[in-house]
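Internal ticket - ligand job 709, flavin-adenine dinucleotide:
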Amino acid sequence: MDLARTARTEALRAEARAWLRDHVPARPLPSLETGEGFAAHREWEALLHTGRWSAVSWPKEYGGRGADLFGWLAFEEEYWAAGAPGRVSQNGISLLAPTLLAHGTAEQRARVLPSMASGEVIWAQAWSEPEAGSDLAALRSRAVRAEGGWLLSGQKTWSSRAAFADRAFGVFRTDPGAAKPHHGLTYLMFGLRAEGVTVRPIRRLDGKPAFAEIFLDEVFVPDEDVIGEPGQGWRIAMSATGDERGLTLRSPGRFLAAAGRLAELWREAGDPADTALRDRVADAVIGARAYQLFTAASASRFAAGASLGPESSLNKVFWSHYDIALHETALDLLGPDAEAADGAWAQGYVFALAGPIYAGTNEIQRDIIAERLLGLPKGRR
Amino acid sequence: MRFLLDDEQREFGRSLDAMLTAAGTPSVLRAWAAGDHGPGRVLWGRLADAGVFALAVPEAYGGLGPLPVELAVACVELGRHAVPGPVAETLAAGVLLGGAGGAVAEEWLPGIASGTAVVSLVLDGHGPYALDADAADAVFTVTGDELRLAPGPGELSASADPARRRFRPPAGGEVMAAGPRVGESARAAADRATFATAALALGCGEELLRATVAYVKQRTQFGVPVGSFQAVKHRLADTLLGLEFARPLLYGAAVELAGRSPGAGAAVAAAKVTAGEAGYAAARTALQSHGAVGYTQELDLAWWLRRARPLRDAWGTPSACRARVLAG
Ligand SMILES: Cc1cc2nc3c(=O)[nH]c(=O)nc-3n(C[C@H](O)[C@H](O)[C@H](O)COP(=O)(O)OP(=O)(O)OC[C@H]3O[C@@H](n4cnc5c(N)ncnc54)[C@H](O)[C@@H]3O)c2cc1C
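stdout (structure tokens):
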């Protein structure tokens, strides 16, 4: 067992650090949950792409660097340490791209990935529906066979930044007569400005239009935009949530950087006599390191050929819980200014609050941990 | 011993609850957040008619106070309905001005009792912000032993709760009273604000729990109400536990305040940290149990969700309150 870094990883790290030093905007961009901020972040994606940094783990032919997970982790550490902007292409890069790499056709990869890497096309995830949140398999939006493709009808919701994004990917019911709810589903890509699509922004707690409802009325999708086999949508969608997303949705680098900033805030503003608060700052520093090492072990197993599956639920519960605790600690350090809505910590706090809800709620993740990792009997769900 | 509200006190709470339910605070909150204080002032007038603000004003100045138990009953209801405005501040001003006495007391206290005067405060050791200073008829500041009338509301600082509008009044202003009695009254006033805020936080938490229990009964996933899942049930049960153990501390502090007990400050602090944390925990539970819709402004719930944490911190952070408990 060792934590030695390969020369290849360290070369990538050094190159990333140098590039980021020269390119990260001096002033933070406006929030990516607003129209103005979304546009600014799209430009940043384009700039990242010119340095071939937008999707380091993809194959070179699509705009990546063919980096392995260790390279990606090193890049992420540098990225967040440099104070670089949030990733507006995140859902496409961490969810759709791995799905296409595993289940898409060569034609789809060649068509979709390069414009995703450059930020030219930004993708929204359209999975959830009003009646299908935790129980995703209860989804009702339909895709009906048409000449040369499919007609989508129904309603998706909570689609992050769909009000500003260009295209979306989602799961649709193609065989309403299938024996089980998660059978007869098909994974499809569609344009958010296509005929028959209506997008209504939804304001999150702080008023920013961070997600949206998508109404679909016989929206035509050509066959070339079906991912994998029709009817296999559930299996395809789930494959990306388990292996890739658990590991790549929130990288340790993000939390290492945040814990570093918190420790700095403590040194500036902390009262040494307040040992309870000091302990929480220390816990944030320790937690970031734990997450970094936990992820290093997962990545090592993955590199050795293991699949991660339900283990990713441990990641999800850990980081979402951690992120809130870290931001709460920062707010407590700010004293009377904690209530101010416009500070970086306050905005980070609002963002962190949703962590235990999206990407599968923590209640659902704990069920997965208990049932699939601990082997406990399945509940009545 | 009879550590229970009497019939009259319970009826007072019920009547405020009924009145505020009928008034419907969410539309008042929306207006308030947009800087339109009209509907809020009307509501304050009705609360004054019900006797709420008179509870904090000494009898000598046209009030009924101090009646801390009734004050707690009222503030729990105001918290339950998320009534906008500087409630804790105006109530604490009753103590501040009553203690300072003189012309400033004569000028302002009758108006506070009758609801025509809305007051905000900045007191030593409680940060530079005056809540809803733009809606207030007066903003008083105390530094050391000097009580001043702030020259204006100052600059707005956006709060996580859009219906809490915090301002930073400029320094200076006319000196209204000075001397050791001012400093002493200011400390008592801060305790009263802490006490009122504890009650507001408890009421806020109770409403969050009520709304969430109602939601998880009707929201179905996997073919059953999500409230039937043990993970959801247990979290809601824990939320109730937190609130139920804050309530006796609040009323215990009320009794100590009423008896002018030397331990009242520590009792108030204990109530505040417990109610503040329980209210905030209720907000976290409410958000999680609602899922994504809880994270939006689509439900009125958002007004309570965004208020719980500021109430936890206002007029005594948990850490400051804990220190006060040990300091006695
Ligand atoms: C900020 C944010 C961004 C999002 N972005 C997207 C996006 O881009 N695309 C997309 O498709 N979706 C997105 N979502 C939606 C997200 O995936 C859902 O919110 C999530 O799946 C939960 O569904 P729900 O909100 O309907 O809650 P519900 O499923 O109604 O759950 C309500 C509560 O019940 C609990 N519960 C439900 N079932 C069980 C059970 N079996 N056992 C125990 N507890 C249970 C839940 O944990 C939760 O606490 C986003 C959500 C948020 C908050």
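Auto-summary: Chain B touches chain A at residues 126-129, 157-162, 164, 166, 221-224, 226, 229-232, 287-288, 291-292, 294-298, 302, 305-306, 309-310, 313-314, 317-319, 322 (CB under 8 Å). The longest strand of chain B covers residues 138-143.
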